[in-house]
Amino acid sequence: MKKVRLGIIGAGNMGSGHVQNILAGKTPEVELAAVADRRADRREWLSSVLPESVAVYEEGSALIDSASCDAVLIAVPHYQHPVLAEEAFAKGLHVLCEKPAGVYTKQVREMNAAADRSGKVFAMMFNQRTNCLYRKMHEMVENGELGELKRVNWIITDWYRTQIYYDSGDWRATWNGEGGGVLLNQCPHQLDLLQWICGLPKTVQAFCHEGKWHDIEVEDDVTAYLEFENGATGVFVTTTGDAPGTNRFEITGTLGKLVCEEDKLTFWKLGMEEREFCRTAKNGFEKPSCEKIEVETDGENPQHVGVLNAFAGNILHGAPLVADGREGIRGLTLSNAMHLSSWLKQPVEIPFDEELYLEELNRRRANSRQKTGPSITFSTEGTY
Questions:
Q1: What is the pLDDT of residues 260-295, one digit of tens each?
Q2: How far apart are CA 260 and CA 147, in angstroms?
Q3: In this structure, which topology does domain 4-127+302-324 adopt according to CATH?
Q4: If residue 36 lies in a helix (H) or strand (E), which one and from where to where?
Q5: pLDDT tens, residue by residue, 177-226
Q6: CB 59 within 8 A of CB 36
Q7: What is the pTM of this model?
Q8: 348-349/219-227 β-pairing
Q9: How far apart are CA 240 and CA 161, in angstroms?
Q10: CATH code of the domain occupying 129-300+331-366
Q11: Which terminus of the chain faces fewer neighbouring Cβ atoms within 10 Å, N or C?
């Protein structure tokens, strides 16, 4: 069987998980060819678990230049995603990038252009798109089963993180090292899913509280109000400071309400289109009839392995990707708009002024704290 020779750049929390999935035989069309990490302790760990045929490098650029790979998986701090992706495209390599696509949309737009010029496969590690619940929500909204969108509410506060998590790396939770907090680290999946299922809003008003629950300089508590082109509204609430936290995604349309919570999908289906019912009802307190339906799915949720197998399948025989890499800019557009709105203390229209965003970000980077201390790698198994 022909396989894709993959190089993984970054063997931290996420990269080490990808290494272990491949070594465990979960990706039959992927052969691990090389891994790179700047930390000596991670290279020591790699040497202890990898077969001798897998090369270990200190720098991602050296791995890219080695000509030992057909493709790379980028799993390093966020600012480096577009830089390494563009290097890989220039060398004729396919690219799979961990979320987020980058820190700011201007840089990611340049990365997307590099992908277009290369003609190589470009994918994003949006593993939550493989979840049967979100795939079904996407399908139902696309098929018009909810009617016209009216309201979107997502409270995603089960991202609880302790202080040691933020202290585990000198790049974490700093403007200069990570470029943001909960919006850029924990929530890229949810922001991607929100736009994938409901579309991008046209206006965002957000309140990002920096270091509210932790000793960090970036946001760990966010409430955002959204307005969509058709007049629908939404609220997005997230934090890493709530325990036990909540994950409830609710979409209301003119034909009913769809709720995803506690690994279940429930549809309250109206017997009549709400707008028509409102216009024609003879009783001021009457409501349209409603049927509660427990939505069935295919039950499949392959997560990171599903994305990696689809990536290899697309390279080898044109199978569909889970998420094209160029789509990474859309969820990032949402987080950038939320940050900019909070910084300016005013609503922000999408598309926003990318130069103004970068100017505001760089002001914060210039005053970013310099963290010291040991780096710690945690297992991410069971956290998504």
A1: 999 999 999 999 999 999 999 999 999 999 999 999
A2: 18
A3: Rossmann fold (3.40.50)
A4: strand 30-36
A5: 999 999 999 999 999 999 999 999 999 999 999 999 999 999 999 999 99
A6: yes
A7: 0.95
A8: unpaired
A9: 5
A10: 3.30.360.10
A11: N
